[in-house]
Design a protein that fits this description.
The chain is built from four helices and ten strands. It is α+β, with helices and mostly antiparallel strands and about 200 residues long. A hairpin with a 3-residue loop joins strand 8 and strand 9. It binds adenosine monophosphate (AMP). Adenosine monophosphate (AMP) binds next to strand 5 and strand 7.
């Protein structure tokens, strides 16, 4: 009986079209990043789905897990539609700064205008975690400065990464207790049964 050669381990890739994507040259630094998506204008569910496809198309990056979609009440300015939220795990060879630039570019493609703080938005993308990197610059704070206090970030994050640790705050799962009073409704899973 012939046995097949051992298969190289590989991550399951999120792929709307079913295509696999080469992440880069072997040996090039690969980092795990988590991105939060939010939308409350137009067709938010369709926007979030399209944004996930855009994230997966980023150069030298690939989505490896996507949470369910969630419906959340707006924070700050109450008199606006509910948000659709999700979190995606991304393996990337981009630096944190380059990834943030790409997120801004995707937001712009979806017509986001930064009108005022807490304004309704077609698409909001936040870089939650980039490996275990920490930094405090206004342009890019890591981990995202408010992620630990938002149910619409923590719950989808824990769904796809139950062991995720937020530097400076500890395990994400342990923080859920503190946000249990925040309204959050789980919509359908984007990809069933995937964890990062
Ligand atoms: P917001 O309007 O809430 O999406 O905030 C966007 C602003 O936050 C931009 O000026 C970003 O440069 C800055 N920012 C700082 N840290 C982050 C982060 N981790 N992810 C996304 N934006 C960030």
């Amino acid at each position: 009986m012939t046995s097949s050669p051992p298969r190289k381990p590989r991550c399951a890739r999120f792929s709307p079209q079913g295509a696999k994507k080469h992440l880069g040259r072997p040996g090039v630094f690969l980092e795990r990043a988590y991105v939060a998506l939010g939308s409350n204008l137009g067709d938010p569910q369709a926007t979030v789905q399209a944004a996930l496809a855009a994230l997966n198309d980023l150069p030298r990056s690939s989505i490896i897990a996507v949470s369910s979609l969630y419906l959340s009440a707006p924070v700050g300015l109450r008199n606006q539609p509910d948000f659709v939220n999700a979190v995606a795990a991304l393996d990337t060879h981009l630096s944190a700064d380059a990834l943030l630039e790409e997120l801004f570019a995707i937001e712009a493609r979806f017509g986001r205008r930064r009108e005022f703080h807490h304004a309704p938005r077609t698409l909001d993308l936040d870089l939650l975690l980039y490996g275990d990197e920490t930094r405090g610059a206004a342009r890019l704070t890591l981990p995202h400065p408010r992620m630990h206090e938002r149910a619409f970030v923590l719950l989808p994050l824990v769904e796809i990464a139950p062991d995720a640790v937020i530097p400076g705050h500890g395990p994400a799962a342990a923080l859920l207790e503190d946000v249990r009073d925040q309204s959050l409704t789980r919509l359908e899973p984007v990809l069933a049964g995937k964890t990062a």
